[in-house]
Design a protein that fits this description.
30% of the residues lie in helices and 20% in strands. With 348 residues, the protein is of the alpha/beta class. The chain has two domains: 2-148 and 319-332, NAD(P)-binding Rossmann-like Domain (Rossmann fold, 3-Layer(aba) Sandwich); 151-316, Dihydrodipicolinate Reductase, domain 2. The chain has a seven-stranded mixed sheet. Strands 2-1-3-4-6-5 form a six-stranded parallel sheet, sandwiched between helices. Strand 1, helix 1 and strand 2 (27-33) form a beta-alpha-beta unit. Helix 1 crosses helix 12 and helix 8 packs parallel to helix 10. The two termini are 34 Å apart. 47% of the residues are buried. The model has no long low-confidence stretch (mean pLDDT 97).
């Protein structure tokens, strides 16, 4: 059994991670850490795990966790792991970080967008970006895994095949994205109160959202040239889900047919268990991926405007955070990639 520990177990992503690990046939949750609730029973904070994990929450002690666990998940704010991780800890355990600390390869870009001094730039070379569908081989061989963000996972997977094939004109990419409120975390913030969110849709982080450089980084790798794009997120009054609608022109000005587009997506994702490219004319919806690790994708060529409309949907807490972390763990420990994650989406 893989002995797993979680730092930040009482945030939404940490609690979802705990739920998935408690159902995993080859993993044992041996350490649930929480700075806010240390000493309290985890099941008293999240009663959905009552009877599954009845132990008390511990302190966030990375050294002790590294010695006791095979893998340590850090579901923490930006800056925590880079300020506290030591190279020697990576010799004791593998680390899967759900923050942005090791996602951005250029430390100056990280520090500019996050307004934080990176605490361990020397470890960036050891980190692997954990988008399982793109970097499976690298993930299997790393001890430091940067788990991608929710908006970024949906955006990159939606656009990657056509960027990789050199079809999209990178200068024309616009991404419009919408997220459920759990993406903002569990902390008490006025903008996230029920009366502030209910019956409302709003854009935020316009031109400045921190997932922008992460999306640009990975699409630039795919395209083989610098990608600078518009990314605008919106908050939707629902618990879970990410919906991405992206718009882009092509380099040649002509549009491939839907059948040609489908064949390209099958080339890159045909063997990927969690990617579902939908039938022609069927648009991805968040309700059909809720509580699952699946990503639904489709593309519509708009001959009238000469643009492609690319769409993706996923659950921000599962494939966008905890589920992807477990998928990465499976790869890192040579387990079947779908283990503990193969359940169908929940509806209604």
């Amino acid at each position: 059994m893989i002995k797993a520990g979680i730092v930040g177990a009482t945030g939404y992503a940490g609690a979802e991670l705990a739920r998935l690990l408690l159902m995993h046939p080859e993993a044992e949750l041996v350490w649930a850490g929480s700075k806010s609730y240390e000493g309290q029973r985890f099941a008293d904070i999240y009663r959905n795990i009552n009877g599954f994990f009845d132990r008390e929450l511990k302190a966030d002690d990375l050294w002790a966790m590294a010695k006791e666990c095979d893998v340590v998940f850090t579901a923490t704010p930006q800056g925590y792991l880079s300020q506290n991780l030591k190279k020697e800890m990576l010799e004791e355990a593998r680390f899967i970080d759900l923050s942005a600390d090791f996602r951005i390869r250029d430390v100056s870009v990280y520090e500019e967008w996050y307004q934080l001094k990176h605490g361990a730039p020397e470890l960036l070379k050891d980190a692997v970006y954990g988008l399982c569908e793109l970097y499976e081989k690298e993930i299997r061989n790393t001890r430091l895994l940067a788990n991608p963000g929710c908006y970024t996972t949906c955006s990159i997977l939606t656009l990657y095949p056509l960027c990789k094939e050199g079809i999209l004109d990178p200068s024309t990419i616009i991404i419009d994205a919408k997220s459920g409120t759990s993406g903002a975390g569990r902390g008490a913030k006025t903008p996230n109160l029920f009366c502030e969110v209910n019956e409302n849709v709003k854009a935020y982080g316009v031109t400045s959202h921190r997932h922008t450089p992460e999306i640009e980084q990975e699409l630039s790798v795919a395209a083989g040239e610098d990608v600078i794009l518009n990314f605008t997120p919106h908050l939707i009054p629902m618990n879970r889900g990410i919906l991405v609608t992206a718009y882009a022109g092509t380099k040649t000005g002509s549009l491939p047919s839907w059948e040609e587009i489908k064949s390209i997506y099958e080339k890159y994702y045909g063997e990927k268990k969690f990617i579902r490219f939908l039938d022609q004319g069927v648009c991805p919806e968040t309700r059909w991926v809720e509580n699952s690790n699946f990503v639904d994708l489709n593309v519509v060529p708009d001959q009238r405007t000469g643009r492609l409309i690319l769409m993706g949907a996923l659950d921000n807490l599962v494939k966008g955070a905890a589920g992807q972390a477990v998928q990465n763990m499976n790869l890192m420990f040579d387990l079947p990639e779908t283990m503990g994650l193969a359940q169908a989406p929940l509806f209604p």
